[in-house]
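FAQ: What does the model actually see?

It sees only this:
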Amino acid sequence: LVGQCRAVNKKVSVYQQASTSSTVESTLNAETTVTLADNGSGGFIRISSPVDGYLEAVNLKQCVVYSPVGRPTVASPRRRN
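And it is asked to produce this:
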């Protein structure tokens, strides 16, 4: 999952550690795209962009990207060589 794109499905907090009792680093609005930085554990997943921190994985959905003709498509996972 590392390096893949996801979007948040509602306004969410990004935490310093993988816990809701941790310090809130930032708040992201619904539909904000994020870059995954690990495979997740315990219901949390680390992101590296647009900020570095952890959010609850349940609040993520597939990214929607627009093709050159303006039709939405779901982003494909990146392949590794």
